[in-house]
Amino acid sequence: MTAPRIVWLRRDLRLADQPAFCSAAAQGPVIPVYILDDERAGDRKLGGASRWWLHGSLEALERSLAGHGLRLILRRGDCVRHLLALVQETGASGIDAIRHYEPWWREAEQELADQADLQLHEGNYLAPPGLVTTGAGTPFKIYTPFARALTRLLPLRDPLTVPELTPVEAWPASDDLADWELRPTAPDWATGFHETGTPGETAAQAQLEDFLDRAEDYGEERNKPSADGSSRLSPHLHWGEISPTQVWHALEQHHGTGSETYRGEIVWRDYAQNVIHQFPRYPEESYREAFARFPWRNPDRDDAAAADLKAWQRGRTGYPIVDAGMRQLWAMGWMHNRVRMIAASFLIKHLLIDWRQGEHWFWDTLVDADYANNGVNWQWVSGSGVDSNMFPRIMAPLSQSEKFGAADYIRRWVPELAGLSDADVHDPADAKRPASYPAKRIGHKEARERALAAYRTVKG
C-alpha cells in the first residue's frame, strides 16, 4: 500500500479549501493529526476562551472526518517530537501542513523541516505575507497602500473542493479529547459562549450564509452595539473553519458598501499577518521607541492602578458602554467590534494602563484571540504601532455610546441600569445612578488632561 501522509492541523480545522489535505490526499492515505502544544507556545499558550472553542471545533472535525472513514489523531506535548514519532510509527512518507506565521510555529516548522519531509502550503490568508511589496520590493508597513496593492491581485485562486480521502489500514494511538479538559466544568463559566456561535466547518458555512443575507447593511450596522450587525465570522476565520478565500468569493456575489467594508476587514486580517511577519514580537513590544518612556501606571506596583485594571476587567468602571463590553466579553468570549475599540481606548488613555495588559486580557478571554490581530489592533489604539491612531485622539466613551445607539446593549449587559431612559443610560447622573452601579473611576475631562500630559513626556 502507498505510504500515508500526515496532515498536521493547527488553526486550519476544515476539509474544504484546505491545501494540506488536497496535497496529502493526492499522494496516498491520509492521517489527520492535531497536537496541543502548550510547551512550545510558552506564555502564548491558548487562553481559556480559545480552549473552549477549540474543543468544539475538534469535535466537529472528528465528525466530518468520520464521514470519510478517517480518524483525527490527538496528541499532547511538543509538536515536533510527536510528529517525528508518528512518521516512524506509521511509515508516513512525510507531513503536509498549512504554513503559520506566529513565531513559535515558524520555529517549529523549521525544526521539523530539518528532520522530515515537510510540505508547507498557504491557505489561512488571502495572500502569503511577503507576497505584496512596495515598488522598491520591501514589505508594506502602512495599511492603506498595502490594501490597495493586495486588492489589485485578488482573488489569487478559486476555493478548493474537498478531496477524496483514503484512510490508512491501521490507525496510531490517539488521546481522547475529553481527557484534555479544554472546557470548564466546576464552575462552568462558559455557559453563554454558545451565543457567540457554534464551532466547526458546517456552522461556519451557515454563519457565512446568514451574513450574506445581511451584508448590504453591514457598513452601518456593524457600528451599532444594540443591533446584530456583526458578521460573527471572526472565530470561524481564526480557527480556519472557513478560509478567507471562501469568504472573498462569496462576497463577490454581493455588491455594495457593506460587502466592500467587510472585504476591507478581511484585508486588515492579512495586513496584521504582514506586520508580525516583519516584526515577530509586535504583540509584545511597542513599535515606536518613544513609548518605552511612556509613564504607564503599573498595576504590579500601584494599588490604585491595580484596582482600576480589575474594575476594567470586571466591567465596573462607571462608564456604561465600557462596562457592557467587558461583561459581554466575559459572558460570551466575544465583544462587539466598536465596543472593543472603546474599551481598549479607555484602558490605555483614561486609566493610563499599558496596552499590553489589555492585549493579554483579550488573549485569555476571546474565543477569536489572534496573535497578529490582537497585537496590531491594540497598538493601533495606543498610538504606539507602525500604523496607528494618534495617541491624542482620545475616544469619548459617553458620546460614542450615544452616537451609536448603545442604550439597549447597555441595558442587557449592565442590568443595574435597565430601568433608565435612553437619555440617562449612557451617562447616569449621580441622582439616578443605582447604588449597585459604581461611580466613574475618573472623569472624562480629568482623564483626557492626564493622558495628554503623559504623552507630552514621550514627545519630550
TrEMBL record:
Start and end residues of each Photolyase/cryptochrome alpha/beta domain: 3-126
GO MF, one annotated term: deoxyribodipyrimidine photo-lyase activity
Keywords: Chromophore, FAD, Flavoprotein, Lyase
Record-linked SUPFAM superfamilies: Cryptochrome/photolyase FAD-binding domain (SSF48173), Cryptochrome/photolyase, N-terminal domain (SSF52425)
PROSITE patterns tied to this protein: DNA_PHOTOLYASES_1_1, DNA_PHOTOLYASES_1_2, PHR_CRY_ALPHA_BETA
E.C. number: 4.1.99.3
Enzyme class label: lyase
Obligatory cofactor(s): FAD; (6R)-5,10-methylene-5,6,7,8-tetrahydrofolate
Family per similarity comment: Belongs to the DNA photolyase family.
Protein known as: Deoxyribodipyrimidine photo-lyase
Lineage: Bacteria, Pseudomonadati, Pseudomonadota, Alphaproteobacteria, Sphingomonadales
